[in-house]
Design goal:
heterodimer; A: 110 residues; alpha+beta; Glutaredoxin; 3 helices; 25% strand; B: 560 residues; alpha/beta; Rossmann fold; 2 domains; nine-stranded mixed sheet; 14 helices; rod-shaped
């Protein structure tokens, strides 16, 4: 069972830092950007940063960040670092992956 | 003329032969096998040779091992990957496929992989690519996506004009774990490592090679200190060229017995005999004579250490050390239990390629194989012999004869592979053992059927005539005794003759004296007679004279 918070209690210092790796202006890239933006708006109250890295423009970043699948979203902060692959159209999985939504069996943590 | 498929040389010993020129250029080749079968090494060697021998830079995209691990692994083979990377001849990209801490949301593709590979290829202008091993992708990503992306990848690789090697894991049914061979239609090679009777052997088989002729058998291969070495011979080819040249055995009398000229170059010679009959000595003489001509000899020994052998041969007046010092004679040990037959074959092939001998001596042959399987052993020998004959290398085998001089069943049929068969037998009589040498067969030449006594002394090897009696022959001390007896008899006869001659002379002399005496008598008698006659004549004359005078005085008429 997944518990979607109505409102996320965020610490003052909690800034969510996202790196989103895309490959050019494809449908998946556009969708990923949009989907990420959507949940940030909904849950993160402006306490977030999104950096979009287009691997077509910066191919060396693929090796550097060890990216093979696109789109790939990496949550840098808050720890732990998490990786989510896909255009982020499955919101449930996205929220669980980012630990914004908490699955029933996992322990309580902010 | 049919257009030939362009190929990319691998530079791997034996592999270019069985692929008839290398891997298909600009196409992907799949190489799969179990863990540790050598696929990564093959891929790496392909790239390194490309960079160092064929002026083609390469990209290695590794999914399992890190770049450092691979570099370290191949350092022992003398390949300096770091230097090649610095020289921009090689580019290593380790793809860390995440296995934990990833979630999936929505659809995705593997464009990131394409981007990385493309940028790597462009960075050094690579013509060769190795992907080791793509199957790791299946462990993390969704299979249907991986499959469609692989399909895309292989067409993309072709469009890039790079010759690619893709490695895969061996799954069940002898195919790859994830079935990626369905995407690679040009060339598929399988590597296998089998353990038979506690001995591990490696095999390579070309399962598919579209548009090219190729060897289709399983070929044994070795991984040694130079890399991979494939033995390209598995079938017996009877097409090798034949030489008419004759070479000395090192024992002049033996050359005489062999049609006057010695062995044929490139032939197979077998010497059988019990332990201690002198087979190794015959082999050593042959080796020495060959080295004297400046030709290299590879001596595969397994019973004695080289030092021991050298010492033993010195005791019969043969010093092989100078040949070793000159690099003409090389010893290699073939201990019976160390390798399986395939490895043994591969090792020998390697030595031959490296050393390029004109003569190979295998002493003894029985230690090559500990297999009880007759068919296997004979097959192995045929392949070995084919290996030598195809390069016109003369090969000299020694072998142990078993009980009563009869060949064991397992060895039956082996002499038929040989061109020349010499047997050393020991004959015992009167409490001593002597050796005899027989030439049992020697194809293509007139050879002596006469047995010879084989003597080893500190002057070396000598072949002596045996004593031929009415029904048998004698050697050893019996021969010497008989020869002495003969000489005695001859001496006696001579002396008898002398004696008779002297007797005759004496008699002659005696008769001569008698004759002389008679002759003297005759002369005397003649003289006497002459004297009497003269006397008579004188008397007559006197009478006549006086008659005349009387007549004169008497004025007688003249009597007319």
């Amino acid at each position: 069972m997944i518990n979607f918070p109505d409102e996320l209690e965020l610490d003052e210092d909690d800034i969510w830092d996202f790196h989103l790796y895309i490959a050019g202006k494809s449908a998946k890239s556009t969708a990923a950007i949009a989907n990420l933006q959507k949940i940030c708006d909904e849950y993160l109250q402006n306490k977030y940063k999104i950096k979009i890295i287009d691997l077509v423009q910066n191919p060396e970043m693929a090796r550097q960040a060890q990216i093979i699948a696109v789109p790939t979203l990496i949550k840098k902060l808050p720890s732990p670092v998490k990786q989510i692959i896909g255009d982020l159209s499955n919101q449930e999985k996205l929220l669980v992956g980012l630990e914004i939504a908490i699955t029933h069996r996992s322990s309580n943590q902010s | 003329m049919r257009k030939q498929l362009p190929k990319s040389l691998t530079g791997i010993q034996g592999l270019d032969e069985i692929t008839d020129g290398g891997l298909p250029q600009g196409r992907p080749t799949l190489i799969y096998g179990s863990a540790g079968s050598g696929k990564t090494l093959l891929g790496v060697e392909f790239l390194i040779n490309g960079a160092t021998k064929y002026n083609e830079t390469g990209v290695l995209m590794t999914f399992e091992e890190t770049a450092e691990e691979i570099t370290q692994n191949v350092a022992s083979l003398g390949w300096d990957i770091e230097q090649l990377v610095r020289d921009r001849k090689l580019l290593l990209d380790h793809v860390a496929v995440p296995v934990r801490d990833i979630d999936f949301s929505g659809s995705y593709d593997l464009e990131g992989l394409f981007i990385r590979l493309s940028s790597a290829i462009q960075e050094i202008g690579a013509k060769r690519v190795v992907l080791d091993t793509l199957e790791v992708l299946f462990s993390t990503m969704e299979h249907h996506i991986v499959r469609s992306e692989l399909r895309r990848l292989f067409s993309w690789l072709k469009s890039q004009g790079v010759t690619a090697i893709v490695t895969g894991e061996l799954g069940s049914n002898n195919s790859t774990l994830q079935g990626i061979e369905e995407y690679v239609s040009d060339c598929v090679i399988r590597l296998e490592q089998r353990t038979i009777e506690d001995l591990a052997t490696r095999h390579l088989q070309i399962l598919k090679y579209r548009g090219s002729k190729h060897g289709s058998n399983e070929y044994p291969f070795l991984i040694n200190e130079d890399g991979i070495s494939v033995v390209p011979i598995t079938s017996v080819g009877l097409n090798s060229g034949v030489s008419d040249e004759r070479i000395s055995s090192g024992v002049p009398r033996l050359d005489t017995m062999l049609g006057g000229l010695g062995y044929y170059r490139g032939s197979c010679i077998l010497v059988t005999g019990k332990a201690g009959t002198g087979k190794t000595s015959l082999a050593s003489y042959f080796a020495s004579a060959t080295c004297d001509r400046g030709e290299r000899v590879l001596y595969l020994a397994s019973d004695e250490s080289p030092q021991q052998m050298l010492r033993n041969q010195r005791s019969i007046g043969l010093d092989l050390q100078p040949h070793i010092d000159q690099g003409l004679l090389r010893f290699e040990s073939v201990r019976p239990t160390a390798y399986g037959l395939e490895m043994r074959l591969a090792n020998i092939y390697n030595w031959v390629q490296e050393f390029q001998p004109y003569l190979v001596i295998i002493d003894p042959m029985s230690n090559l194989s500990t297999s009880n399987n007759i068919k296997q052993t004979k097959n192995f020998l045929m392949r070995l012999i084919d290996l030598f004959k195809s390069s016109q290398i003369t090969v000299f085998f020694t072998d142990l004869l078993t009980v009563n001089g009869a060949l064991e069943a397992s060895e039956a049929g082996i002499p038929s592979l040989m061109d020349t068969w010499i047997e050393l037998r020991t004959l015992e009589n009167n409490g001593e053992r002597n050796r005899a040498l027989y030439i049992l067969k020697s194809r293509g030449m007139q050879h002596s059927n006469q047995v010879r006594e084989f003597v080893l002394n500190n002057q070396g090897i000598e072949l002596l005539d045996v004593y031929l009696g009415e029904s048998d022959f004698l050697i050893g001390s019996a021969r010497i005794a008989q020869e002495a007896k003969d000489r005695m008899e001859k001496l006696n006869r001579c002396q008898e003759l002398e004696r008779k001659k002297r007797q005759l002379n004496q008699q002659q002399a005696l008769l001569q004296v008698q004759i002389t005496a008679l002759q003297v008598q005759l002369v005397n008698e003649r003289e006497d007679f002459e004297a009497i006659y003269q006397q008579d004549q004188l008397s007559q004359k006197a009478i006549t004279d006086s008659k005349d005078l009387m007549a004169d005085l008497r004025d007688a008429d003249t009597i007319i």
